[in-house]
Amino acid sequence: MAKNALCIGINDYPGTDSDLSGCVNDAHDWAAVLQGYGFNVSTLIDEQATREAMLGAIGNLIGSAQSGDTVVLTYSGHGTWLEDTDGDEPDARDEALCPWDLTTAGPLLDDDIHSLFNTRAADVRLLLISDSCHSGSVTRGDESDLDADAPRARFLPPAVWMKPGTLPSVPRASALTLEGGLRRVGGDLLLAGCRDEQYSWDTRFAGRPNGAFTYYALKILKQDKPQIYDQWFTAIRKYLPSTRLPQEPQIFGTRSARQMRIFD
To answer: Closest by alpha carbon to 141, among 209, 201, 192, 77?
Structure first.
């Protein structure tokens, strides 16, 4: 049974004024942890993460997996949205990942990702970790690790990257929703940095840029050593949401999947 992973991190968005700081560190951090769990890991960083390269790498990750294999996909970068054109979205929006060449090649739609996920062989276990997008509400949480300056949202409004006259008419921001590409049976799981209507935040801890969700998820993994996904998720919620990081992490998957051993 093979264990393969792809970690994507994009800080640089040419043609916009919306560069991020912590996404590349996120990708390298996830890669290091996954290698420690026995995964064969590939990365796409900044200019490597073109739309074409992301489609190809995700397709290879999914397409090469055989029955019994585990695949992990992590994404840290901006999320965005477009008007839905095929009527399959209740909110009239197609959510999307933002590749490095977003302004020239366009986004990677959730429809594209769902299609790739659906090509999996039977009994291939998929874990998707998304630290992107969203907007939210204020509550409490331990912020002792967080640097004092304000974090930045990982959401890229269409007006930033689309040409004038082509902007969609749907008036509000959206989050990336990928759980529709997960199977309702077996070991599929999505760990997301926040709810659909929220932002995930790009910030700093002890001077080092990271996504808030990634930082706390990996801190818990190292510090508390949870054995199953439900334990891990519960521990992350001790830190998020907080006053300056108003994001509520989410976990999607069957009860049995949530009771599985982490990265097994």
So the answer is: 201
Q: Give the chain's length.
A: 264
Neighbours of 223 (CB within 10 A): 10
Q: How far apart are CA 104 and CA 45, in angstroms?
A: 18
What are the start-end ranges of the H helices in 109-241? 110-117, 158-161, 212-223, 229-236
Catalytic residues: 78, 133
Global pTM reads 0.86
* In the block, residue with structure tokens 């302004």: 103
The pLDDT-based confidence of 155 (bands split at 50, 70, 90) is: confident
SS3 (DSSP) at 210:
strand
pLDDT digit string, tens, across residues 61-72: 999 999 999 999
What gap in Å lies between CA 82 and CA 89, rounded to an integer? 11
Domains and CATH numbers, the chain: 3-258 (3.40.50.1460)
> Which residues does 164 contact at the CB level (< 8 Å), separation at least 6?
none
| Order of strands across the sheet that contains 208-211 | 152-153, 201-205, 208-211
Which neighbouring-strand residues pair with 79?
A: 97, 155
The rounded Cα 216 to chain-centroid distance in angstroms is 14
The crossing angle, in degrees rounded to 10, of helices 212-223 and 229-236 is 120
CA distance 151 to 215: 13
